[in-house]
Amino acid sequence: MPVVRDLRVLLRLKDFRDLLAVRLLSQAADGVYQVALATYVVFSPEKQTSPAAIASAMAVLLLPYSLVGPFAGVLLDRWRRRQVFLYGNLLRAFLACVTGVLIVTHVPDWLFYASALSVTAVNRFVLAGLAASLPRVVGPGQLVTANALSPTAGTLAATAGGGLAFLVQLLAADSNTLVVLLGAGLYLCAALASLRLPAALLGPDQPPGRVHPSLAEGAALTVRGMVEGLRHLAARREAARALTAMTMMRFCYGALTVMLLMLCRYSWSDDEAGGLALLGVAIGVSGAGFFAAAVITPWAVGRLGTRGWIVVCAAGAAVLVPALGLFFAPGPMLVAAFVLGLATQGAKISTDTVVQSRVDDEFRGRVFSVYDVLFNIAFVGAAAVAALMLPADGRSVPLVLCVAALYAATAVLLGRPRRVSRETSRRRFT
């Protein structure tokens, strides 16, 4: 199979393998840490979780570090990306240990959220750096396959980490602290793995003698750099349209995630342990969809193009979400989880490829940070809308239909033929 052959070629590249190892360990730690937070907030027996509580938790954890995203991009275009992976993961290991201590001591919720926010804020630097570094370790013709393998493998690693965390939770009572410390250990391993990469390999290229800006200068450079990055993105319509479509699909995915949490918590099980087990199965099935997307997307992009494949993913989700989701039963919903995992990851692989191939290297850090900000805002916005629409048991026909309509709108908007300016047309015929 061509996909298997391409993957073998990529895996022969030592620098790609080393960068992939950093991603796998880092995102496995993310999966462990996120499950620990979810179970502490949603599935603790002493907490009566509501859609509004879930939305509030997502807002606290995701929305504030949307402000960090632009700063991350500008700094990533100035700092050695390898050093970001090293020191960023070391810092996350320390902060995760702090979170574990706070869980044991039963501190107020705001202090717990502040600690969790610190870990996820550093995460923006690491994930944006991984995306911006990928073109430095593969050739231009290998980007589609690399984007199919690397981010998807990272997502699968996060799913595996989450599964490990679920297993620990089910085997040991009151094990939130143990799970958080497991995540801290994986962050430490990711930091050590980054040392296999040469410090200068991942860029960005810096003129000799360049001095890092001060904090005040960095803030000013951030504002100026974001304006430049947005202008750069605006001049590349294909990348901007792909980002818009991915943001809409992320919104849909976020709304359905909140609904799934409520269904697992209150509709499909009589106790927290049963609901937690069902959620673990759903995450595993969704992870299988991510893996399927990694296998299918290079082949699909080769025949449909990146834009055509995103349209197919959005249109397929628009049809299958109501067909499966309106049963509000575990079986059909697990099938929907697989479909949405495939559609969302397939669209993301294509979007990553479009951005990486259309955006200049010196702007990639900033653009991928904007990408992360859009992801976070879309997810938090979806959680807020779901909180308004969902009843306590998580069954909402209007929410499912609205999500299906948004998927359909994404497919229609992205599938429309692009307008060609008069100047461009004149150039084509002269």
Describe the structure.
This protein has helices spanning 2-11, 14-42, 51-62, 68-76, 81-105, 109-133, 143-171, 176-194, 215-234, 237-267, 272-325, 330-358, 361-389, 397-415, 422-428. Helix 10 (237-267) runs antiparallel to helix 14. Helix content is 81%, strand content 0%. It has 430 residues and is an all-alpha fold. It has a single domain (6-203, 217-418), classed as MFS general substrate transporter like domains (Growth Hormone, Chain: A, Up-down Bundle), CATH 1.20.1250.20. The longest helix is centred in the last third of the chain and has 54 residues, at 272-325. It has 15 helices and no strands.
Task: Report the helical percentage.
Answer: over 70%
| CATH topology tier name | Growth Hormone, Chain: A
* Global morphology: globular
The Rg value, from CA coordinates, equals: 21 Å
Number of helices: 15
**Are there runs of 5+ residues with pLDDT below 50, and where?**
420-430
What does the average pLDDT come to?
83
Q: What's the structural domain tally?
A: 1
Task: Please sum up the structure shown.
The protein is built from 15 helices and no strands. With 430 residues, the chain is mainly α. Helix 3 packs antiparallel against helix 13 and helix 4 runs antiparallel to helix 13 (361-389).
List strands and helices in order, with pairings.
Layout: H1 2-11, H2 14-42, H3 51-62, H4 68-76, H5 81-105, H6 109-133, H7 143-171, H8 176-194, H9 215-234, H10 237-267, H11 272-325, H12 330-358, H13 361-389, H14 397-415, H15 422-428
Helix pairs in contact: 2-6, 2-7, 2-8, 3-6, 3-13, 4-6, 4-9, 4-13, 5-6, 5-8, 6-13, 7-8, 7-11, 7-12, 9-13, 10-11, 10-12, 10-13, 10-14, 11-12, 11-14
